[in-house]
Amino acid sequence: MRPVQLRTLDEATQAPTDGFLADVIEGLSRPAKRLPSKYFYDARGSRLFEAICETPEYYLTRAEIEILGDHAMEMAAAVGPRRIIVEYGSGESIKTRLLLDHLDATAYVPVDVSREPLLAASAAIQTEYPRLKVLPLHADFTRPFNLPVGALGRSLVYFPGSTIGNFDPAEATALLRNIARAPGCEGALVGIDLVKSKRVLEAAYNDSDLVTAAFNLNLLHRINSELGGEFQPGRFSHRAVFNEAAGRIEMYLVSKIDQVVGVGGRSFSFRAREAILTELSHKYTLDGFSDMSSSAGMTLTQAWTDDAARFAVVHLVR
Ligand code: AVJ
Predict the structure, then answer these.
(1) 28 vs 112, 142, 253, 269, 313, CA distance in Å?
(2) pLDDT tens profile 122-173
(3) pTM score, two decimals?
(4) From the CA of 111, how far away is ligand 1's center (Å)?
């Protein structure tokens, strides 16, 4: 097949990473330090995430692919024909193909903060689906953004991968409310990871090949290369624990020693064993997610799970 040249539309107002330095300084200045998880996904981080999906412990992606393989036709029937599909956090768009094969969509708008993977995935999709209008949008979907001209009409938000789990309940509700209010948007297909045993969950975020550890530590490499940070990543270790009360995996980078690290002309001190929170990954029950959707003005009308009921794809209608 002939490769296709595509241009990403950059949301002009603000590049997705403009706030990187400000967010790092703000997060490391807090008494309980944290860094936003959206900065994991530079080119290397995106590759590491794809590698996580291949580890035996990280069941999420395989479970979601199983669901799409078994139920994409029912999903397409629920969504209806001739829709614009707007995908949040599209990454490699692997799962999207399973949907597009059944969906009779008019346009596909992948939205991602990571520019190169977005472009590569969009070009590949355009080659494979020549009649589909592919309109990549390089943007941060947590901020208001405009759909590209040519993608106006009835749309569906496709939000797979349990990325919504990265947001705390208030933020996730706000995100769903924004989806519900977007002009032309009729609803969403959302992938969520379901609550299960602490053992299985913690294994998924502590794979034995240490790919997740490398993914977590990549944040420090990225601060070094893009912001002139002076982290020595070997002086931090990866930790992921399931907080049962909050129903979420919490991922941290833990300082191995007392140390001071410079970033952007400032210095931050870390005590031995002090932790930086780098990611939350919420696990839901179907009832809990349905309640949250209702409070955002959306109704959960259908849910599909894999055979082992580890993961769900739900249809929300506004
Ligand atoms: C891409 C946000 C869905 O939370 O499971 C994988 C990211 N972090 N392993 C998740 C991730 C550690 C992932 N999401």
Answers:
(1) 25, 21, 12, 9, 35
(2) 999 999 999 999 999 999 898 888 888 777 889 999 999 999 999 999 999 9
(3) 0.92
(4) 17
